[in-house]
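Annex B, item 7. Sequence and structure tokens for protein A, then protein B.
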Amino acid sequence: MNVTIICDVLGEANNGTTVAAYNLINHLKSQGHNVTVVCCDAGKKGENGFKIVPTIDLGPVINAALARNEVVPAKPDAEILEDAIKGADVVHLLMPFPLAWKAVPICEKYGIPMTSSFHVQAENFTCHIGMMKSNLATKEVYKYFYKKVYSHCAITHYPTEFIKKDFESNVKKNVTSRVISNGVCESFFEPASVQAINRQKKRNHDKFTIVVVGRYSTEKAQQVLIKAVARSKYKDRIKLILAGEGPKGKSYKHLAKKYGIDCEMRFFEHEELKEVLNAADLYVHTAYVELESIACLEAIVTGLVPIICNSKRSAARYFAKDDRCLYRSWDPEDLKNKIEYFMDNPEELDACKNKYKTQANISRLGECMNRMEQMLEEAALTRMKEA
């Protein structure tokens, strides 16, 4: 197949959406498909298969706000888009933003079927304008996404049943879709070496180590964990690892220093993150907004027990086996109590580790990418049938 992928935001693989995009691109190429990617990542200029559009200039104030959140949106260029689209068998839209909006009428002009992925919750947008908890804002954003992108697609990919129901209940429409996990990389299913685990434990000074993985941003709410540890009677026994990077980094570092918490904050590459998870004692998932949370699934397959924010805006809450592994959203006191329960009852923590380690409903990356490929092939066939 000739597949064109429209990426409104693409850059460093330091967030779930970008990782998912690269996973799909690399898989399709590995299967012999001809893949063209349209994005505004200047670092890809001259690289085979990439067509680069400019970035949007929204003025100094908005540009600065976007830069703080490490978002560089693409500016649609009709000529570049048409060149990338007109020979495709299927066009896949990664995000419901301006580059995709401009691609839609071009696809329709040439009769090329479109598919899309649902990687953006309304709250990922509304959190930047102080309306993350507004149901009305969520509904209006989703209606706009539907009008501009999803109503035009032959098939839409939802990473979870949770986001499918959430989106379709807000827009009052059902779209042809497939629910396909973004998938956990195969290597996380294999344990790290004893040497690597011991090395990590030594770095952590053999403290009780708690890990949270995610971008430092408003909707991920890592500050709740920092405050929970600060309140704990075991504060001095705990090593806290915030794996990630993002606009809230300085704020979190200041908070951890203020409370005197042994806290490590940085981005971990894939293999080192696997070692960190294997050597940890507990995983906490603080995100208030979450489409799927591959990070939480990666922790679970290593055998870690998760304590998860019980937010109605998060799919991750469904991973919890019981109430001991859920805490009230935005409540550091409740989270502190859950952490201390497992520290006070190590035999319960071990029993829970075995329970999570053996759960069999986590999808591996390879099988998920095969299903994505099948979805694109199915959509491409609709053009042939119409012809």
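Protein B:
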Amino acid sequence: MSKFLSLLLLGSTLLLADKTIKIATYNIDNLFDLQKNGHEYKEYIPYSASKWNKHNYNIKLNHIATVLKDIDADVVALQEIESLQALKDLQRKLKQKDLYYNYYGIANAKNTTVKVAFLSKFPYRYKKEVRVTSSLKYRNILEVKFSFNHQDLYLFINHWKAKSGPESQRMVSAKALRKRLREIGYDKNILAVGDFNSDYEEYIKFKRQRRLNNTGGKTGINHILNTLNSTKKEYLYNLWYSVPKEERFSYIYKRKKEALDNMLVTKPLLHRGGIMYVDGSIHSVKLDYLFTKKGWINRWQTSRRKPHTHKGKGYSDHLPVVAEFRVFQK
């Protein structure tokens, strides 16, 4: 695609015949580059005793690229990527596999250890970051606006605080996202995706865990973003509810399946219009190689003994999650 055509599309809408667009979200489990900047986790300091080196980096890139090639989504939201360099290296690796993402972006306004990013086959109107406090403890949310057949689609890529901390920390990210959604309006086509570190029914599952429940039973995903009451104007529908309960998972912790990776939509995406969710299309990607022989998710492996060293095996501790959306010609 020529630079002129790219700029033309970037400033206008992308015109498509009736088409199904596939959107994926994937926590790729700490993709760090080989440049030392002082923000790395200890086991990802380049060329150290951890064996995070060119050999293992290339294996990691190739493994993630293999997954993305098999998914072949039109837009991929990524979590746990260190830098723009790592994103570009992944883009190049995908190009070697004949999968071309000409458009990309990363939330790098502040030096959090890992960040959210995206790859897209389609041009976008703009990308910006939703600020989640000035603290490096919280990762910014990445907002990307697309336009298909004169219909806008707002994509928000999230990576909320892990459950090593209480629910009040995830509330911080939820409130930042809600504030931005109110500015745009819930009557718009909005899709919020990513690793929320929250199950689709977190309000039930965390209630008896004193370590997590410091919010009086309220959760960021269910109460702040309101995925429970469809009669309210400010309502987000969790797409997991469109498939059978046994299919709703992207993560396994202590033998229990959880849906930490979610896709939330505003009401307009549920009804036939310019863009509509394909009912029942959400699923976690369960390719055979993403599981061990024992049925665990085949995560990227490091040794148990310290210093933790990379083995050059595995993929991620999360499964990718994919959903389809129908774009109608007007």
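Comment on protein B: Residues 1-11 have pLDDT under 50 and may be disordered.
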